[in-house]
Amino acid sequence: QVTYLGKVSTTGMQFLSGCTEKPVIELWKKHTLAREDIYPANALLEIRPFQVWLHHLDLKGEATVHMDTFQVARIAYCTADHNVSPNIFAWVYREINDDLSYQMDCHAVECESKLEAKKLAHAMMEAFKKTFHSMKSDGRIHRNSSSEEVSHEFESDDG
Questions:
Q1: Would you call 108 exposed, middle or buried from its count of C-beta atoms within 10 A (0-12, 13-18, 19+)?
Q2: Which of 54, 87, 151, 152 has fewest C-beta within 10 Å?
Q3: Are 3 and 41 contacting, i.e. CB atoms less than 8 angstroms apart?
């Protein structure tokens, strides 16, 4: 269980260590100003190969019908251990708009501990590796570089 802090659009195409710091600070400020920490866990984050599910919880801590789905192949970067709080896990997601243009959004969740945030970062990396391997063996990825070179671009930075 996590507290979903929200999302904010981010710019750039190179996602390197530290690229989520500014968006996470913005989301953290909005979260603390809104005093949303009255209801600490408002979501359940489930990371699997191909998809990540963010189940939203009601005030009783039960899953609602509202769920956000993220395709693992569209996640450009993920990281844990931010300066504002080591308990935050964040990922950059390529959102495709109705007109087929896209934007990069940084999503963030607050975990119960630094260890839980790091576990999510490692789970996301494993999900990406499995997804990438499957897409490559299915012929959906036609790239001459080795899988290690490509997967390195999407490597999680867990501090």
A1: buried
A2: 152
A3: yes
CB contact burial 23-59 (16+ within 10 A = b; e otherwise): bbbbbbeebeeeebeeeeebbbbebeeeebebbebee
Phi-psi region of 61 (alpha: psi -120 to 50; beta: other; left: phi over 0): left
Give the chain's domains with CATH numbers: 1-136 (2.30.29.30)
Segment 12-32, tens digit of pLDDT: 666 767 788 899 999 998 887
- Please give the Cα distance from 151 to 8 (Å, whole number): 25
> What pTM value is reported for the model?
0.78
Cβ pair 21, 90 in contact under 8 A: no
- Which strands make up the sheet holding 75-80, listed edge to edge? 3-10, 102-110, 88-96, 75-80
